[in-house]
Amino acid sequence: MRLLLVEDELEMASALSAALSRYDMILDHAPSLDHALAALANHVHDGIILDRQLPDGDGLSLIPRVRALKSGIPVIVLTARGNVDERVKGLDMGADDYLAKPFAVEELLARLRALMRRSPDIAPMTARIGNLEFDFDSRQARVGDRALELPRRELLVLETLARRQGRTVQRSTLEESVYGYDDEIQSNSLDAHVSRLRRKLLDIGANVEIHSIRGVGYLLRLAL
Ligand code: CA
Q1: 55 CA distance to ligand 1 centroid (A)?
Q2: What is the pLDDT of residues 69-86, one digit of tens each?
Q3: Is 110 in the same domain as 198?
Q4: Same domain, yes or no, for 180 and 141?
Q5: How far is the CA of 203 from the centre of ligand 1 (A)?
Q6: How many CB atoms lie within 10 A of CB 121?
Q7: Do 222 and 208 form a contact (C-beta atoms < 8 A)?
Q8: Of 25, 67, 187, 222, which has fewest CB within 10 angstroms of its CB?
């Protein structure tokens, strides 16, 4: 899962980024509206956490532009605690939820999960391909009754492929879901993650395969 935080307080951004990486999530940090627009144009995000007071304007002005780009993406607005006007204005502008600062990362995650459940077209709860089941809520993969334990990057690869099961996922899309903004991408590291993942799927007895389409990307499908 890849989130975009639009917030100019660097301390808060790095704390949240560290907290989310423990949940195997990638956080892109945009310190201004301009940065946010660039990030949205270049990456696919599963949710936006939006502060209002930004150096180049009110965060709420981003919402109509987000909706124009990809209408369903959940937007959570950060507000000052107890400020009812801010909350109401945010919701009026099309935010899906608000969160008072300071907040606990668990609360943020719970609210994101709730928003994603409300829009099943964007994020179905579970993907099933053959005997492989991927639960997007708990972010757990199972084959039959066995849990498949995966390190972060392999989990992110499988999650992205499972979300688009049966469809080819471009290399660039996969790299985006596996690497953050500032990560260095080694040219062959995606393939290395995929081949470890294939081995683990095989070892656990999954009847699915990660099919590679030369020069394009990968596809998760039933094993032929
Ligand atoms: Ca701010």
Answers
A1: 8
A2: 766 788 999 987 767 787
A3: no
A4: yes
A5: 48
A6: 6
A7: yes
A8: 187
